[in-house]
Structure formats: structure tokens, C-alpha cells
Hints:
Layout: E1 6-11, H1 20-35, E2 40-45, H2 50-56, E3 67-71, H3 79-95, E4 99-102, H4 108-118, E5 122-126, H5 137-144, E6 148-151, H6 154-164, E7 171-173, H7 190-195, E8 204-208, H8 220-233, E9 238-242, H9 248-257, E10 264-268, H10 272-281, E11 284-287, H11 296-303, E12 308-311, H12 316-319, E13 327-329, H13 334-345, H14 357-368, H15 370-385
Parallel strand pairs: 1-2, 1-4, 2-3, 4-5, 5-6, 6-7, 8-9, 8-11, 9-10, 11-12, 12-13
Helix pairs in contact: 1-15, 3-4, 4-5, 8-13, 14-15
Amino acid sequence: MTKTKKIHLWIPELFSSKGGIQVFSGFFLQAIQQLYPQASLNIFVKNDTPAIIQKNIHQDCDRATPVKFHGTGITKSPFRTILFALILIITALTQKPDLVIMTHLNFAPIALLLKKIIGIKYVAIAHGVEAWNIQNSILTKSLQNADLVLAVSSYTRDRLYQEQSLAPQQVGILHNTFDADHWQIAPKPQHLLAKYKLEPDQKIILTVSRLVASEQYKGYDRLLEAMPAIRQVIPDVHYLIVGKGSDIDRINQIILRNGLQDCVTLTGFVPDAELCDYYNLCDLFAMPSKREGFGIVYLEALACGKPVLAGNLDGAIDALCNGRIGVLVNPDDTEAIGQAIIDILLGRNENKIICQPEMLREESINAFGFIKFQKNIFSYLLKFLD
């Protein structure tokens, strides 16, 4: 009789907030549930409370073994971190899982401790800034002893090679994914045109990002600085920035300094359910970031058939397939950003695929759809859970 495999999945949070790691973790959990319906699966979520987990989880009825969730979000920090670590250690010592998978690198030292005590195997997933320029020697040792590290982009993988001395065979690439059914091609929504007093044929640029000081690298400020030059060629161009955060005052100062009050709109927070309409409202999704681990927003825009402009110094290179399905530009070059936007909006960019909505959607799904994501996970975990 085949022994039931025991998998422990360690996640920072699933439902308390929406960010790249949270979205990735949700898709990863979904993939694991479908790939291993016979496995004993324990999910440990640090920042979600048991109540919010219970409210949001949907048990897979096809699974032979029920999934068990453990959430410590009800405990105040810093005690939450201590409690979460204790639960991870005690449960692992009791159950002796066949594999521990974590969707954030910061959990790796706990896994290393368990590896020394009971010999567990562990897989760590590396996204972006948390995996770059690591100075913590314990975390470095934990990564060097991992059975596998999965990076969401070639950029993050290469930095792990260079900075943490990881062996090439120790690091794989697992690109982000998205729900293609949620993002569809549609005409510009009339209610948003009316809301923002825009014309159907008016050229609209869109950025979706958290507007906080720690994420100024997203490049929306560079794009604002490029707007005067863009307006000289396309006078009625309009720039929508979707998001909220602590960087609003600085953004408003840039808008005032460049006289952009009549051509830039800060929409504030937009619920996930309404974001597809905003993608369909725009003629170009632009986020010339320089520290993006991957950038799920690029995939969402592509699935809506929109041209995408991104930076050429980070994980966005992978998201745009090395520029095959989008436009990559130096995120520090304001003039280059402006000229690239002008060329895209006027249909002058040499990459003609960006003017073919259905092709953009098809290519993004083929490269990053959930089925491809799930197959990639299976190929990496086969040696641990066969």
C-alpha cells in the first residue's frame, strides 16, 4: 500500500491583504491541492486569523484527504512570529512531513533547524526584493541547504546565484500565474469614461500599484516626469494611477510641478472585482519598474489585450518574454520612457504584436496560464513526492 505523502505549506498570508506573494501563494495552494489529492496537506498561514481563513477557504471535494489550516493572525506581533515558529516546529516534529514548502524565504531558518533535527526536505520560493542582497548569514545558510529554491524570474534566480553562492542545479524558475478567466478583452467601459470625463478615442495610460514610499521603484514618478513630453505629441493623453498609499503627497507635488492637474487622475483604491474594467479602459499599461520580482499586473493587462511597457532591469523581462509580447525600456531614462509611450500610443512601435489584443492574450496564457504553472510545479516536486 502506497504511503500517504505529508506536505506542509508555510505561507505569510492568503486573505488579509492582496499583494504579489499573497496572490502567488493562493495559486500555489490551488495547484498543490489538485496535483496531490491523496496527500495529507497542512497549511500554516502566519498573518491570517482562523476566522478569515474559515470564511475564505473552499474545500476541494475531490480530495481524498481534507486540508488542515493553521492561522496565527489573531496573535499580536512580535509574539505572532514566535508562536508561528513554535507551531511549525512542533507540528513538523510530530508529523514528520515528506516535504515542507514555503512561499517566503524568511521561513527558511526554521526549515533548516528541522532538517538538522529530523532530516526534512524543504523547498523555498524566492520572489523579488526579499531575495536580493540578503545580508543575514543564517538566512543565507538556510538557502544554501535548501533542497530546492524556486525563483519567480530569471532575474531573481541570477541574483541568488551571484549573491548567495547557490549551485545552478539548486535553483529553478517558477513564473507567476494568473486567472485568465477573470481578465477579458472588452470595449472601454462607458461608466468609467463618464466617471473620469474621458472620450472613447482619447489615449489613456494606466498604472496599477501600491503607492507607498517603499515601492517608488515601480516607476510611476518617472512616467509623470515624462508626461510633458508625451503631451507635446499627444495633447489629450490622460494618465490614470490606480492605488493608494503613503506616497500620494509626493505624487501630487510632481503633478503640480509639471502642470499635470488636468491630465492625471489618482483613482485611489479599486477593488479587484473592478480592475478588469480599468485595464480595458486604457490604451497602454505602463509600469517602468526597476525592482519588480515579476509583476502579475503585467499578465492581467496582457490578458485584457493591452500593450504593456515595463522596465528592462528586473523580473518584468520574464513577464514580457524578453520583450516579445511587450516593450522593455530603461526605467531610469525618462526621455526613453516618454518616447516609447508615444510610439506605442501612435502605433509606431516596431513590435506589431502589441497592437493585436487577441494575440497578446493568447501568448500570455500560453506562457503563464494556470495549467502551465501547475505543470511546472509538478515537474519540480516529482522527485520529492513521487
